[in-house]
Amino acid sequence: MNPVIIAIDGEASTGKSTQAKKIAEKFDYNYRDSGAYYRAITLYLIQNNINSNENINHSILDNIALEQIYKDKKLTIYLNDIDVSEKIRGFKVSVNVSNYAKIPEIRNFVYKQLRKSVKSNSLVIDGRDIGTVVFPDATFKFFLSADPKIRAERRHKQINDKSVKLESIEEEIKSRDNTDSTRKIAPLKKADDAYEIDVTLLTIDQVFEKILHKINSK
Q: What's the confidence (pLDDT) of residue 160?
């Protein structure tokens, strides 16, 4: 029996990771957060003063070892054997990740990491191009969208840092949407066969039920 692949794509801060984790737990599948790979790479490059407009090739990327472990409802991200789960969610990484993520060499590096994860295990994975590029033949595809202001409010609560203004987060989200959807390589877009859910007015549980219903009805 072939592994089941469930792709959950969508805009920033629409709850993709939350839903992917819940689905993975429900069916006892592996879970991968594709965005966490890009964030960890961004963190590494920032720490090493490597700009997104520089030539980032394999000689640089080969120095990066990434690992994701999802256990007891917690995702831990290791960058060169160091737990960076908290650091990659910081504001500096958030405002820079899209500029690094559009670099072809970085995207190909991440694609290889993701495809390795599904060789023998069913997988739930969230991102922006999972159903369109990474796993175009995924068993199930979902696309989550929401009003930018609502997404900014959710991200603001997540960050839990009063020094970061809500307006700044909303601008960052709009800017990231634009960068992600207009990049030449694997732009953010809904796969033709993906089931779209506008989560603006829905609770986490309501979104989960919609996804679950779609999976169970096949």
A: 66
